[in-house]
Each structure stands twice: as C-alpha cells, then as structure tokens.
Amino acid sequence: MRFMIIVPASPETEQGTTGTEQQFADMQAYNEEMFKAGVFVDGQGLHPSSKGARVSFEDGDWVVTDGPFAEAKELIAGFTIIDVSSREEALEWLRKWPVSCAPVAGQALELRQVFAPEDFGDGYTPELRERDEQMRTEAARNAARG
C-alpha cells in the first residue's frame, strides 16, 4: 500500500523559506531510515504558490489563475510517498517525522492512501492497466535520465 504524507504550507514556506541546516539534516536522516527499511518511494518540497497556478474548467474553457493564493493553511509545501503493508505501519512512520520539521501550530501532516490499480474495479480494464504500467515504466526511465 502506498501512502502520501502531505506537508502543509506555512507563512514561511509561502515566502520561499526552505529550511535550516538542522531541518535538512533531520529530514535527510528520516528519509534515509525509511529508505533503509525499504518503504521510501519519493519525497519533494514544493515552491511557494506565488510560482504556481490553478487551472479550472469554466464555461467550456480552461482558466488559469496565477499564484500566490491567499489561504496558506490550504496549500501544500511538500510530500513524501511511502510503500508499506498497512495504514498502521504508515502511521508508525508518520510518528517518526522529525520534530524540527513539524507543521506550525494549528496545522497537521496529512496521511492519504494512494489508489492502486486493483482499487478501480472492472472499469479499469486489463488493456488500460497494461498501458498504465507501460507509462509508469517509461516515466521511471525518464526520471532516471534526470
């Protein structure tokens, strides 16, 4: 089971602050522990919403709204994806999150399970599954080229 740990944005991350040397060291140690345990899939920080955009579909057309966006508490500053055997194991890893990187008061890390192909039922045909797997293999090759 794959899970995403969603890191909420804060006023500091929305200003482009990336972290202290201690926070980087703590997060790297945490990621290394997960990597050695074989559960770490990916993790990235995100630029502030001022460098982003929201795209909505309105009246039959796509509308682009450039950031920044007002409510920092509704924004994401980063994510980590882990592959574990259960929700309980995911929560165990989440409880090890570095305290120096904990969200600001009033915010929380969010844990969400990532859909797997078997979760989609009969509408997700064997042909669609095969093409999806081909695309994921190609994407991994592209990522490795970097």
TrEMBL record:
Pfam name, any one: YCII
Composition skew (Basic and acidic residues), residue ranges: 127-139
Domain YCII-related: 1-99
Region annotation Disordered: where it falls in the sequence: 122-146
Cross-referenced InterPro entries: Dimeric_a/b-barrel, YCII
Database matches in PANTHER family: BLL7163 PROTEIN (PTHR35174:SF4), BLL7171 PROTEIN-RELATED (PTHR35174)
Family membership: Belongs to the YciI family.
The protein's name in its UniProt record: YCII-related domain-containing protein
Lineage: Bacteria, Bacillati, Actinomycetota, Actinomycetes, Micrococcales
